[in-house]
Amino acid sequence: MLGAVLEENEYLARLNVELDKTDRDALRRWADLIYDAWENGKWVFIFGNGGSGTTASHMAEDLGKNTLHESDLNDESKKRLKVLSLTDNAGWLMAVGNDLAYDQIFVQQLMNYGGPGDVVIAISGSGNSPNVLKAVDWANRHELHTYGLTGYGGGKLKDTQQDGLHVALDDMGMVESIHLCLFHWVLNDVFARINSVGRYAQE
Question: What does residue 83 show for φ and ψ, rounded to 5 degrees?
C-alpha cells in the first residue's frame, strides 16, 4: 500500500505522476462508447467487485442522473441514458451466488438484460476476477461492446476485453481512485455532448 510507505506529499506527487500516464485516446474512446449508447438507445452495464463494485454503483448513478441538466430531470420528453450497475441488486447477487456460483452473478444478469450493441464496463483492478471475466466473455460472444478498467498487469481482462483503460500500477487503492477520477471526466464529456455545452456548444 503506497500510503503506508509514502508521506502525504510523496503520495500526492505519485498520484499526479500516475494520472499523467493516462492513455488519452483510451479515455476518449470510453466517453465515445457511452455517448454512442445514449445516441442509439443502448444499455450501459457496469460491474466489479469490492471497491470496484461500489465504483460501478457510483458510475451508474452519475450517468443516470448527471447526463441531464438538473432542471430537465422532470421533463419526460428528454432522452435518457439507459444505465445499470449489476452490483446493486442484492436479491440477484445472493440468489445466483447461493444457487449457482459467485462467478455467475454478473453473467446471469447480462443474459436477462443484455443484447447486441449494448455496452459493458467491466472493472477489475487485478483483471482476474472470474465473475467479471465470465460476463465479458458472454458479452463478447453476443455482440455487446466490452470496455475494461484494469490495474496491476491487466490480468486476463486486458486480453479478453475489446477495449479498455489500463492503470499500470501495483496499488489497488490508487488504481481504484484513478478509475473513478477519470470517469468524472468521461461523465462531464458525455454531459457536454448531450446538452451541447462547453466544448460542444453550438455557435
Answer: -140, 140
CA–CA separation, 60 and 46 (whole Å): 7
Q: Rounded to whole angstroms, what are the CA distances from 142 to 111, 114, 135, 145?
A: 9, 9, 11, 9
Cell digits of residue 160: 479478453
CA atoms of 121 and 8, how far apart (whole Å): 32
Q: Please, which residues have CB within 8 angstroms of residue 98's CB and are 6 or more apart in sequence?
A: none
* 82-85: strand order across its sheet: 82-85, 43-47, 119-124, 145-150, 163-166
Count CA within 13 A, CB hemisphere, residue 101. 7
pLDDT (tens, 9 = 90+) of the chain, 203 residues, equals 887 788 889 989 999 999 999 999 999 999 999 999 999 999 999 999 999 999 999 999 999 999 999 999 999 999 999 999 999 999 999 999 999 999 999 999 999 999 999 999 999 999 999 999 999 999 999 999 999 999 999 999 999 999 999 999 999 999 999 999 999 999 999 999 999 998 999 75
Q: What is the pTM of this model?
A: 0.95
Q: Give how far the C-alpha of residue 192 lies from the chain's centroid of Cα atoms, to the nearest Å.
A: 19
